[in-house]
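Researcher: Can you fold this with nicotinamide-adenine-dinucleotide in place?
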Amino acid sequence: MTSTLDGWIRNFVDGTFVEPDPQRGFDQIDPATGRVLAQVHEADQVLVDRAVTSARRALDNGWADTPVRERTALLRRAADRIEERFEEFVAAEMADTGKPITQARELDVARALTNFRTFADVAAAAGQESFMTDLAGGRQALNYAVRKPLGVVAVIVPWNLPLLLLTWKVAPALACGNAVVVKPSEETPATATLLAEVLAEVGLPPGVYNVVHGFGGNSAGEYLTTHPGIDGVTFTGSSATGSHVMKTVAPRVRPVSFELGGKNAAIVFDDVDLDEALTGLTKSVFTNTGQVCLCTERVYVHRSIFDDVAAGLAERAQGLRLGDPNSESTTTGPLISQAHRDKVLSFFKMAEQSGANVLTGGGIPDLGSKLAFGSWIEPTLWTGLTNDDPVLREEIFGPVAALVPFDTEEEAIALANDTKYGLAAAVWTNDLRRGHRVAQRMRVGISWVNTWFTRELRSPFGGVGLSGIGREGGESSLHFYTEPTNVCVAL
Ligand code: NAD
């Protein structure tokens, strides 16, 4: 069973790869070189309907009632099989995103395994609350909840960490006995498709995992979220798209889980170990070329160490190695597409118009003829801006940050919270009390002290404000992917 024959990336419906329609192909482009690598079959409305129908059938044919131990065993076999086919997943992720091989191995594909194993553990260990209720006459009633699968879940994910974000949702959804129809980003169709092979190989029944390819509006994304057979939508992507999807789901009153954009702050106090803070900031600003929802784009630094942090971070940015993704020494890949680079460049222009001082970067690097048509961009840092400037207000989603000085703790907190987003924050300090105090006052879903991107998958994850609705992770995932029925028994 293969997903990519004759240069086509196929849809996967009811346990089978669908023969592509030559009239409905779109390009899979390597962002590092600009080369067209394959054709992706854009699913039409009929195919999306078939996917949803097959998911429903799989539930009715017994998947929803499969014992938890069978479902979790299957998840573990899926993790083992991804491990056996590890380098294929690495190659597929690199083809889609152009990201460096070390990152694809150590972050993206590694986390896919962990997602499957963690949610197998979480589902296996899950218990139920029960309550005794006093009745008249000294009797009592026992209350407990039976958790049932949500049903057919639409899973819509973006391009920045495609396999990681997909499996973060698919693993708990399957562990809870749901059937899924996934719509990967049009930019990154490969790993979701390869995962279909793996899940079929380990014995997942037909219809439990379906993949439909295409775009958002008036394409597979919208066909899926407006389909009456969908019981819930879990979505990761931009805040604007999330808002739109919410409207399309509202008429049928279905649950949604939204993991959306961020405009994340770091606060650097004057008591830090400078070297440790600079290492952390370099990661938080530049990982995945700044294309992580959790990346830092605003860095507030105590005025007394501002110049040292600015100079140190600029030096580290200049030390990043852009280039051939297959080289083990490459640290930084391209942006996902030319269109996204145009967007990031438009922020470079805005920074200039706001009178920014460019500490480093600010343009397109020359990486030689082989990479000349890739979507490369220079890691870029600015000073001389304030929270009123557009580059500090909107998510840019590139390898960029603005550094702004502060004088007091209160001022730093106010600056960091001055945003309509609320996903993540990082506080850098050697004062333990201050670390806790400031981290707790961040208006975000996750607040780190002296670290960044450290993820405990059993903890709740999500955002406030424009950064999302709901939480996933650990028990929170089990809650989203199930519906409880309260059983009340008079004893
Ligand atoms: P996007 O919103 O453009 O697209 C996300 C997905 O939604 C894609 O699969 C796309 O095809 C689909 N889509 C677009 N329009 C749709 C519609 N009308 N109906 C249904 N589906 C539709 O986002 P993107 O550019 O792919 O990803 C980058 C964004 O994702 C950034 O804002 C980033 O912060 C966010 N993100 C958030 C998290 C998080 O956990 N909070 C994680 C990663 C990325």
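Model: Folded with nicotinamide-adenine-dinucleotide in place. The domain at 4-260+466-490 is CATH 3.40.605.10 (Aldehyde Dehydrogenase; Chain A, domain 1).
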